[in-house]
Design goal:
- Pathway: Lipid metabolism; fatty acid biosynthesis.
- One of its GO terms (molecular function) is beta-ketoacyl-acyl-carrier-protein synthase III activity.
- Its EC number is 2.3.1.180.
- Pfam families: ACP_syn_III, ACP_syn_III_C.
- By secondary structure, the protein is α/β, with parallel strands linked by helices.
- Helices cover about 35% and strands about 25% of the residues.
- The chain has 2 domains: about 170 residues, Thiolase/Chalcone synthase (Peroxisomal Thiolase, Chain A, domain 1, 3-Layer(aba) Sandwich), CATH 3.40.47.10; about 130 residues, Thiolase/Chalcone synthase (Peroxisomal Thiolase, Chain A, domain 1), CATH 3.40.47.
- It has 11 helices and 14 strands.
- Helix 3 crosses helix 4, helix 7 packs parallel to helix 9 and helix 8 packs across helix 9.
- It is globular.
C-alpha cells in the first residue's frame, strides 16, 4: 500500500441539550452575551452514568457500521481524550472491550483540542509502516466533567461528544502528511489541571495565537498534500469558538470550501470536535467522496496538527 484512507466516519452526542437560556439561569450570562462572544447556541451534556469511553464506543460503532466492518477487522485503537478520569485501563482498552475487538494495540493520546489530528497521524503512520492493518481513531471528551459551572467565561464554551474514523491501507493516499508542533512555553494558556481537574484558559492569548500564527501553518499542511487552499472542498478546524474559526478559515484562503461551524450547536468538545464536525458534513451530504478536506486541530499545550484528507 502507498498510503492510507479514511474508510468511514461516525459520531455521537448525549441526548441532553443545554441552551444559552439554561446557562443564564446558572450564571450571570445571556444568549446575546454568549452568541456575540463565542457564537454558541447549544451544547450536549453527558450524564454522570455516561463516561468518556461510552461516548467513544457509540461513535466508533457507527463508524464501523458505516464501513461495513466487524470489530475483529480492527487491530489498532487510538483514542484522543484529555478527560478520562482513570489512568488505567485507558480509554482505548475500554472501548475495545465494549466493542469486542480482540487483542488490538490500544493507546490514548492526550493532546487536548489537537488530539484527533495527532491520533489520525499516529494511525496513518502505523498502517503505512505495516504495524497495523486497520485502525479505529476516536476523539472523545466529556468536558462537562472538568468544567467550573460557576465560571461564565468557560462554562458557556463546553460540550460533550465523540467522533470516530476507520483508517485502512489504500493504493492512493487519502490522508496527507501531517504538519504538527507546539508552543510549550505557552502551554499554560489552556489548562485542565488540579484536583479535581478544572478547565481554564487565557482566552485573549489563545485568540491572538490562533488567528495570527496558525493560518500560515495550516497553509503549509495544504502544501504538504500538494494542494492550494482554494482547491479544498471543506475546512474542519477545531471547533473552539466561532470568533476564532471564522477569521482563521478566512486567513487560510480556502475561498471555495465549506467551513464547519458545528460549534454553534455542539460547543467546544475538545478532541471530539473535528471528527464530530467531519462526520456531520458527510452525513448531511455537504461534501462528497474524494473531496479534499483540511483537518486542523489546535489548542491545549498550544499544540497543533493538521492534514488534508479525502472524504470517505
Amino acid at each position: 500500500m502507498n498510503g492510507t484512507r479514511i474508510a468511514a466516519v461516525g459520531h455521537y452526542q448525549p441526548a441532553k441539550v443545554l441552551t444559552n437560556e439554561d446557562l443564564a439561569g446558572m450564571v450571570d450570562t445571556s444568549d446575546e452575551w454568549i452568541m456575540s462572544r463565542v457564537g454558541i447556541r447549544t451544547r450536549h451534556i453527558a450524564g454522570p452514568d455516561e463516561p468518556v469511553d461510552e461516548l467513544a464506543s457509540h461513535a466508533a460503532a457507527k463508524a464501523l457500521a458505516a464501513a461495513g466492518l466487524a470489530p475483529d477487522a480492527v487491530d489498532l485503537v487510538v483514542v484522543a481524550t484529555s478527560t478520562a478520569i482513570d489512568r488505567s485501563p485507558n480509554t482505548a482498552a475500554r472501548v475495545a472491550a465494549r466493542l469486542g475487538i480482540p487483542s488490538p494495540a490500544a493507546l490514548d493520546v492526550n493532546v487536548v483540542c489537537a488530539g484527533f489530528t495527532h491520533a489520525l497521524a499516529t494511525a496513518d503512520h502505523a498502517v503505512r509502516a505495516g504495524s497495523a492493518t486497520r485502525a479505529l481513531v476516536i476523539g472523545a471528551d466529556k468536558m462537562s466533567e472538568v468544567t467550573d459551572w460557576t465560571d461564565r467565561t468557560t462554562c458557556v464554551l463546553v460540550g460533550d461528544g465523540a467522533g470516530a474514523a476507520v483508517v485502512e491501507g489504500a493504493d492512493e493516499p487519502g490522508i496527507g502528511p501531517v504538519l504538527w508542533g507546539s508552543v510549550p512555553e505557552m502551554g499554560h494558556a489552556v489548562r485542565i489541571e488540579g484536583t479535581p481537574p478544572r478547565f481554564a484558559q487565557e482566552g485573549q492569548s489563545v485568540y491572538r495565537w490562533a488567528t495570527t500564527q496558525l493560518p500560515a501553518i495550516a497553509r503549509k499542511a495544504c502544501e504538504r498534500a500538494g494542494l492550494a487552499p482554494e482547491e479544498l472542498a471543506a475546512v474542519v478546524l477545531h471547533q473552539a469558538n466561532l470568533r476564532i474559526i471564522e477569521p482563521l478559515a478566512e486567513k487560510i484562503g480556502a475561498v471555495n470550501a465549506v467551513v464547519a461551524r458545528d460549534v454553534t450547536e455542539s460547543g467546544n468538545t475538545s478532541a471530539a470536535s473535528i471528527p464530530l464536525a467531519l462526520s456531520k458534513l458527510v452525513e448531511h451530504g455537504e461534501i462528497s467522496t474524494g473531496d479534499p478536506v483540511l483537518l486542523f486541530g489546535f489548542g491545549g499545550n498550544l499544540s497543533y496538527a493538521g492534514q488534508v484528507v479525502r472524504c470517505p
